[in-house]
Amino acid sequence: MSYKIYVIYSFANFKCIENLLKAVNDYNEQKQANDRDISIFYFKKENEKVISSDGYTYILNDESWKDKAKKKLDDADLICFYMDSLNNEKDYSNVKYEYEYASKNNKKIITIKSDDKPLTHEAIEQFFKDENYGQAIDKRETISESQILNNAKFRVRDSILIDDESDLKRQDKALYYNLLLEQYKIMIETSESLINRRQAMSNLYTGIGTALISLVGTSFALKDNLVIGIIFFCVGLVLTIISATWLVQLASYNQNNYGKYEVINAIEEKLPANMFDVEYKFNKNQNIKTYSKREKLLPIAFIIISGIFLVFGVVMFFIGLF
């Protein structure tokens, strides 16, 4: 899921947001697998037209761009307001409209310092020519472009604890860590339960696949090439569907368990020993393959066998016909 940013700035100073665009592009290319993409929306002026970053074109001074702006402002997770991109009063109206709409709809707005110059309260008031607006912006956070990227990142280790244990009194810390240990045990149990369900599913598919393979073996007793061909083809088709479904479900179980172990490892960092994390690193260092990789071998083998059955079934079918 993408983290959506809407940029408010003056058309005359498009260069003021180029650092942000470059930073977002670099972030999307280098982000970790569990970080969200950042999508950024803005308008820019070319000749007598207004072009949005997703390719839509509007005539300058045409009101239709406002409908597009409203939709994108509603969808945005964050509004970046480049206050110091404004040079004169003719730049004010469009930017004021965007900011006013975002503010009325309680969107998160941050003021960006595109050139690291401090923003003064007088400059804000000059822009809006309204004391209330000036005070509203003055209370908002002022950050640099690079800090915006942190809003899109979600780290389990930064979010696992509701309270900072360093602020607790000694007698409260014992209760705190007892509760943390109990929650840790719950996560272990849910992870083991997920593994057990995955194993039960694999046993079921293994039994069905083995039964189907046995079925085609007994079909030779029929001594009818046409019937044998039909049986082999049908079994091959069913075995292919079952094996593909098996692989998809294994991937889903592994993804769910990955999230659980991220939480478990984050809790372990607050406990005396981080056993699971060390075990994972040791196995990786020793090139020991995980069970999740080995368990894929059987459904892959079934897919190969089913492919052979399909080809053999077609051959036997045509032999039976002629």
Supply the key terms.
2 domains; Rossmann fold; five-stranded parallel β-sheet; alpha/beta; three-stranded antiparallel β-sheet
Low-confidence stretches: 116-149
Number of strands: 8
Could you give the distance between the termini? 57 Å
DSSP helix count?
12
- Rg, alpha carbons: 30 Å
Strand content: 5-15%
Determine the structural class based on helices, strands and strand pairing. alpha/beta
What does this structure look like?
- This protein has 322 residues and is of the alpha/beta class.
- It has two domains: 3-154, Rossmann fold (3-Layer(aba) Sandwich), CATH 3.40.50; 167-321.
- The strands form two sheets. It has a five-stranded parallel β-sheet with strand order 2-1-6-7-8, with helices on both faces.
- The longest helix has 49 residues, at 170-218.
- It has twelve helices and eight strands.
- A hairpin with a 4-residue loop joins strand 4 and strand 5.
- It has helices at 18-30, 64-75, 92-104, 121-128, 131-138, 145-148, 156-159, 170-218, 225-268, 275-285, 291-294, 297-321; strands at residues 3-8, 38-41, 43-46, 49-52, 57-59, 78-81, 109-112, 142-143.
